[in-house]
Amino acid sequence: MRLAFAVLLAATGGGAVAETGATGDAAQGRAIFHDGAGLVPIVAGRALPRMEGRMPCAGCHGSDGQGGTEGGAGRAPAIRWSVLSNPPAGGVAYDAAALGKAIREGIAADGRTLQMPHFDVSDSQVGDIRAYLGMLDQIETQGISGESIALILPAPQSAAQAAGAAISAFNAEGGSYGRRVIAGQEGFVDLGSLLGDLRGRLSAAEEDQARSASEVSGWQALPRDDPKAPLQLRRGDARAFVGPAPPSLNWALANGADLEAARIHALTALILQELRLSGRNLGRSAFLERIGKLDLAPALAIYENDAGP
């Protein structure tokens, strides 16, 4: 998300977003929206500076601005600027003044009382928030067209080759709702970053797989000092190891790639499957949240006897 935001800022010449008419600093608006930076709540008519930063906009409205719930309360509305400035028929559009009144007093553009906290914000801060809200649609859908979804590939050549092979296989199966996955510097997500995060979790997932094999089939995991080495198993005289899923291991064996490349291939395939499961109307924040909860077990398999690398 931060990388995509930086790319969009550069493309628009800094903090202002000319195409949406915003004049504030979108970078400052992002800090307010996601972190509550400088956002001081008003309680019983009094500003409470000690509570600054504890109630960011994203906490209720979602990191993608699409709305959400907070503490079991009613659903907070979507607040992307494309929504606020283009209400349904009969609605009243927001401008910067109306946005400020909603934040400070909890009064909607149409005069309704909003069930939301009030905040002590300056006109400058309102402008910053307005500028960032105007960028959310672009940030959430960057890299997506009707025909393709661009991903930023990992930098190491071996990882890029493994990821590229998984992408080719995914596209051969039809891609995601008719869209092909392609490489691009202004991508929907940074695949390299996602792979780094998932790779950090993979050793624990391999150990979970070994424990399951122990409970079900009596395999015992052997100690390993190097987390990049295969996790080997023993059952009497028999041997096995926990490795990448068969399509990924087969790709590595056929192309002279090592075990680590096979793992990257398997994790990429898992990310791409989640991309397909996310549906046609993709949003970056929701997708990253799904990846954060991803079960890595489907990227792994147990190979017995002579099936090792």
From TrEMBL:
<keyword id="KW-0732">Signal</keyword>
<dbReference type="GO" id="GO:0020037">
    <property type="term" value="F:heme binding"/>
</dbReference>
<feature type="domain" description="Cytochrome c">
    <location>
        <begin position="24"/>
        <end position="137"/>
    </location>
</feature>
<protein>
    <submittedName>
        <fullName>Cytochrome c</fullName>
    </submittedName>
</protein>
<keyword id="KW-0408">Iron</keyword>
<dbReference type="InterPro" id="IPR036909">
    <property type="entry name" value="Cyt_c-like_dom_sf"/>
</dbReference>
<feature type="signal peptide">
    <location>
        <begin position="1"/>
        <end position="18"/>
    </location>
</feature>
<dbReference type="GO" id="GO:0009055">
    <property type="term" value="F:electron transfer activity"/>
</dbReference>
<dbReference type="GO" id="GO:0046872">
    <property type="term" value="F:metal ion binding"/>
</dbReference>
<dbReference type="Pfam" id="PF00034">
    <property type="entry name" value="Cytochrom_C"/>
</dbReference>
<keyword id="KW-0479">Metal-binding</keyword>
<dbReference type="InterPro" id="IPR009056">
    <property type="entry name" value="Cyt_c-like_dom"/>
</dbReference>
<keyword id="KW-0349">Heme</keyword>
